[in-house]
Specification:
Distance between the termini: 111 Å
Shape: elongated
Strand order of the largest sheet: 3-2-1-12-11-8-9
Largest sheet: 7 strands, mixed
Structural class: alpha+beta
Radius of gyration: 30 Å
Helix content: 25-40%
Number of strands: 14
Strand content: 15-25%
Number of helices: 6
Length: about 240
């Protein structure tokens, strides 16, 4: 029995030494193994992935992240330096024992980009498995590890203005009533409403149904080009009727 215990201790010691060597030379592999382990546990599948998103536009430079209280926040800092640490005064406060009180910072330098700087933390800062012994310039999609916390870094410098939505799609959008109920603005294609024979009756029903108020409020939000297209479509579909 004693020999078996001694053999088991030696086996575990060898595995521990192998693990240390693996971690020393391939620390990023550990992050991937932990991610696979998390995915295999149903209780952890609802955990949101952590991220930091650097945004540079014409008016400001800021970070968006869900590291603070596990909810997405937009963080603006006049010096463009976002400190990360366990201390409550940190711009990104992470209450984790493996994070130093003042662990690291993300800094933006004009015309250069975002950098990760480690403050000689106890457990170190890593970018894609590389120890941040000096400031490391961050790229879109980088993987950052601070202590036991791992998150993805994203950055964007460009913004596209998309074209306006086509009228036929606008007609099918959902708008919300005051009582938080959803109202569909378009009838189903396979449900045809019968037309009344007299146009005057159609107009009276239209007024009594309060559709006029809804349409006026909705119509005011369109551009002049969209209004013109709506009128063109409306008049092109009118059915002539006999006034006699």
């Amino acid at each position: 029995m004693a020999d078996f215990a001694q053999t088991e201790i030696e086996r575990r010691l060898i595995l521990y030494q192998v693990f240390l060597k693996l971690y020393e030379h391939h620390s990023s592999l550990l992050d991937e193994i932990l991610q696979l382990k998390n995915l295999s546990q149903p209780s952890l599948t609802r955990v949101k992935p952590c991220y930091v998103h650097g945004v540079v536009d014409t008016t400001a430079v800021y970070l968006m992240t869900n590291l603070c209280d596990n909810q997405t926040q937009s963080l603006r800092q006049p010096q463009q330096i976002w400190t990360i640490g366990r201390h409550g005064s940190s711009g990104i406060c992470i209450p984790d024992s493996h994070i130093s009180r003042r662990h690291a910072a993300i800094q933006h330098i004009d015309d250069q980009g975002f950098y990760l700087i480690d403050f000689n933390s106890t457990n170190g800062s890593f970018v894609n498995g590389e120890l941040a012994e000096r400031p490391i310039k961050l790229k879109d999609g980088d993987r950052i590890r601070l202590g036991n916390i791992t998150f993805d870094f994203f950055v964007n410098y460009t913004c596209r203005v998309l074209p306006t939505v086509a009228i036929d799609l606008l007609m099918q959008l959902v708008r919300r009533k005051n009582d938080n109920q959803v109202e569909i603005l378009a009838y189903s294609r396979d449900r045809q409403k019968p037309l009344l024979e007299k146009a005057d009756e159609n107009l009276e029903i239209f007024r009594n149904s309060r559709l006029v108020e809804k349409f006026e409020h909705w119509y005011d939000n369109f551009s002049s080009e969209q209004k013109s297209e709506i009128l063109d479509r409306f008049f092109s579909k009118q059915i002539p009727y006999n006034r006699s």
